[in-house]
Amino acid sequence: MIEIATTVLTVEDVDRAGDFWRAALGYVNRRAPTDDWVILDPAAGKGAAPSIALSRTGYPQHYPPRLHLDIYADDQAAEIERLRGLGARDVAWDGYPPDADFVVMEDTEGNRFCVVDAPDWFEPGGRERRT
């Protein structure tokens, strides 16, 4: 049996990317970062969310990327503004369907993610999926 435990994002600046993702997701370092690697885990009490690792590669991002993260938001507009304040940027993309419930953004390193309007995903007072 196997399972996905960590998603690795390639970055040019581990410190800058770590600052962004820790603030964006409320994650913490698993252990002290090195110059080219850090693993970020959910903070205590955040449930079984997956880890994110940041790896300095020395080569630029490829566009369009072949992988992106979906970030679920209970208040999409507020989260988009908060993420912009942390350094995220909007991605100019003409592929939105008319009923899109997501907005494409990129982190400080150019890694793309979608902020999905998903208020039904969240339980009051916690971040557990409703069934």
Automatic annotation (TrEMBL):
What range(s) does the VOC domain occupy? 3-118
Q: Name one Pfam family in it.
A: Glyoxalase_6
**UniProt-listed InterPro entries:** Glyas_Bleomycin-R_OHBP_Dase, Glyoxalase_6, VOC_core
User: SUPFAM superfamilies, from UniProt?
Assistant: Glyoxalase/Bleomycin resistance protein/Dihydroxybiphenyl dioxygenase
Domain of life (superkingdom): Bacteria
The name this protein goes by in its record: VOC domain-containing protein
Organism listed in the record? Microbacterium lemovicicum
